[in-house]
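Hi R.,

Here's the chain you asked about this morning:
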Amino acid sequence: MKLLTDEIRRKLPLLGSQDGRGGKQTAWVKFFMPSGPFTWYATEFDGTDMFFGLVDGLEKELGYFSLSELKSIRGPFGLAVERDMYWEPKMLEEIAPELFRSRSQAGKGASS
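And here is the predicted structure, written out as tokens:
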């Protein structure tokens, strides 16, 4: 399976172009380990190898990851990272709302 098609490559915003948008950043492509807990949601791409987005593994965090890294990963039974072919772009706050709640929102309901 081709991890990054030309069509997806054209849709991905350039690295740094969504700075300051927080949870309003759009995840254009989703990669996952079919035999493990890791999922990568790419919001930006440098056009060559480097993505920025949400990594959901042992915990959820924003950060950089590379296409070459994704291609090299092998899980149990030699299974490689795959692209979710049915993925529809979503904002990060839809995927991981807990990362983008403000402190005032997070405190609501705690005392009720």
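One quick note: The chain has one domain: 6-107.

Cheers,
M.
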